[in-house]
Amino acid sequence: MQVLKFGGTSVADATNISRVLDIVSKAATRDRVILVCSAIAGCTDALLEIARSEGAVRDTLLASLRTKHEHIASRLFTGAERAEVLAELDGLFGELAKAPADETVTFGELLSTRIIARKLACDGIATKWLDSRILVIKGHQELTYNNISTAVALEPGVQVFVAPGFIASEYDGRHTTLGRGGSDLSAALYAAATKASRLEIWTDVPGIMTANPKQVPAAKTIPEMSWQAASDMASHGAKVLYAPTVAPAMEAGIAIHIRNTFEPEGPGTVVTTMTEGKAPEWVGVTGMDDTLKGESLLCLVGDGPVNGEAACKRVEGCLRKSGIRTLSISSDGTNIYATVRLAVVGQALEAIHREFFEVAPLTRLNLYIAGHGAVGKALEEMIEASRDTIAERTGKDLCIEAISTDRGFAEKVREQAPRGSIFVDVTDSPDIWRSYEGLLREGVNIVSSNRRSFAVPFVDYAAMHAAAQENGVFLRYETTVGSALPILESIAAGTNSSDEITSLEAVVSCTLNRILSAYTLTPDTFAGIVRKAQEEGLTEPDPRVDLSGREALRKLLILAREAGVPLEEEDVELDSLIGPEYFDIPLDEFYRKLEAAEPEFRAREDAADAKRCRQRFVASLVKDASAPLGYKASIRVECVDANHPAYRLKGTENAIIIRSTMHPYPLLIQGPGEGARLAASSVLNDILR
Ligand code: ADP
Ligand code: ASP
Ligand code: MG
């Protein structure tokens, strides 16, 4: 047996009743059906009004109700059948007119189900109308079950039983009802009595939803929920299910399926026994108005034990953000209860719903990545691995639109990428910067780890920044100095907030400092250490690129410009570790020459040692009124003593020491400054900042 119950809206007119008949006849091909129906929409309210009124008013109300039903009958039937239904309705309205006031309300379900039962029979389905007033005895479950099962057993040939919902009898035989919304309970009683294989409650919404969709349009259908949660939702205001319905269904172990008559293919909600050990979660939010007090009791329904105190705070907090004061708040360990003024109930429900059931839409970040070397690959991996976590934490969805090593890539991105996209330069191309301005002017943001792009002549550097500013896009390149250390950010923040740099010392060349440290700590020759570093891949393929100090020069240009000093290459006094004679010769000759100069290197090292100093390759910018830019810039090997922060730098560490009007005691930023993953994380940070 299957029990299908249709509510008032589902049987509101001939068109809707036809939908119901379609659903029922389809179900009847699978198994026998007990069809439980409500009165047509608005009928119960009208009957209660009729019971309260007299004379002409009562007559008018009765006539209107009669017209509605006759209209439905006329639409559904023709010829002799129509005449028979109209005659039956005439009989029922005759009884209704004479009925005692407290029984008036029981006629709605009689009217609707008589019409529907007749229509099914006319359609050739073996149908029997069951009188719920005889079978359902209020408050006597066992007796009711006996009555129903006997009545059904007596009619093995019937395919569809039609029973009025809502109505019943007291034990003494007086007609009564199961309470407003009680047809749902009627259905559960019929289902439990017949040990039905299925109980479906068809209504005008897609299921039990996270809130009443009439109050909270963003409400979503809950696919599955526990008996307890359904009961809590129902008893605290979710009218979609009459709360007393849950108990008999649960006792009989029959799941309740809530379905939408107007979208019969929809999945609906299943109320059933949930798997044990399921994590507690929030189910929905309901409201119950107390018009006398002018308040509404809101209930945030949970499934399983919750941290009540934290949840109360969260509820209060989200209401406060919407400008709503909570009159009271409490938790019973599963649900949270809050009272608010009736006037703000709609906003309050929306606020709680937003906080607990709506995910803010993600901001999509379209990434176009130029370069696929070590940093590019690490970045790609990192994004793939943490895309979901990042989305959860930041609300940003990182979408890699393209990765390319193609020379023309930047131009293609400029032509095709939507505004607001991010061009990520993880190449070490010497001329890709020429595309930056065009990209920025097309509204494309840029994140770059490519140092060369910012060591260009100052006019070009300034033009890029102007393009970014004018077009409301960003140009970020924190990775270019000290990798993931927040160096540029700190300098820019200080400079922009009217701090003035007095000196800046940067120990930012990992390779050189590693070579210098190794020379201090091992007995190897300087040439031997350089060769080893080259073999380990720590230097550029030609180690002279590192020894020349050009990388440090680029970093110093970037640092100075970030500090507001328009430094150019020519302004820097560069003392590279090796003289010009080391450069224009083949590599093996270079090593021989270096080996020959070992006494010189050793002497320098010993001299430093004698002063208890260590050699460090330092780029510095020092305020100097006599210099054309007001600053003197230099890069050289310096002997630093034990008080200098760079003295103890290890391995790949970088350090920058900033003295400014605001930092008379130097600000020291120090930490690892090398490695593809570190660089990738810094690029990612720039993307998300
Ligand atoms: P029926 O006449 O089919 O029994 P009801 O009017 O009794 O229908 O119940 C359905 C109504 O319940 C919906 O139209 C909806 O406005 C209201 N409702 C309240 N809370 C909820 C909720 N959480 N989920 C779905 N519907 C809800
Ligand atoms: N018709 C009754 C009511 O409006 C019962 C029901 O529809 O469930 O309350
Ligand atoms: Mg209802």
Outline the structure in words.
The protein is an alpha/beta fold and 689 residues long. It folds into 4 domains: 2-204, Carbamate kinase, CATH 3.40.1160; 281-357, ACT domain (Alpha-Beta Plaits, 2-Layer Sandwich), CATH 3.30.70.260; 364-479, Rossmann fold (3-Layer(aba) Sandwich), CATH 3.40.50.720; 487-672, Dihydrodipicolinate Reductase, domain 2, CATH 3.30.360.10. It is 42% helix and 21% strand. It contains 24 helices and 25 strands. An 8-stranded mixed β-sheet has the order 3-4-2-1-7-9-10-8, sandwiched between helices. Strands 21-23-22-20-24-25 form a 6-stranded mixed β-sheet. The protein has a 5-stranded parallel β-sheet with strand order 16-15-17-18-19, with helices on both faces. The radius of gyration is 41 Å and the shape is elongated. The structure holds adenosine-5'-diphosphate, aspartic acid and magnesium ion. Adenosine-5'-diphosphate binds next to loops.
Tags for this entry?
25 strands; six-stranded mixed beta sheet; Rossmann fold; alpha/beta; binds adenosine-5'-diphosphate; Alpha-Beta Plaits; binds magnesium ion; about 700 residues; eight-stranded mixed beta sheet; Carbamate kinase
List the total number of helices: 24
Provide the β-strand percentage band.
15-25%
Strand order of the largest sheet: 3-4-2-1-7-9-10-8
Q: Compute the gyration radius: what is it?
A: 41 Å
Give the overall form: elongated
CATH top level label of the largest domain: Alpha Beta
Small molecules (ligands, ions, cofactors) in the structure: adenosine-5'-diphosphate, aspartic acid, magnesium ion
User: Any guess at the CATH architecture of the largest domain?
Assistant: 3-Layer(aba) Sandwich
Provide the CATH superfamily of the largest domain: Acetylglutamate kinase-like
* Domain unit count: 4
Mean pLDDT: 94
* Residue windows where pLDDT falls under 50 for at least 5 positions: none
The count of strands amounts to: 25
Share of helix, binned: 40-55%
CA-CA gap between termini: 61 Å
Structural class: alpha/beta
CATH topology group of the largest domain? Carbamate kinase
Major β-sheet annotation:
8 strands, mixed
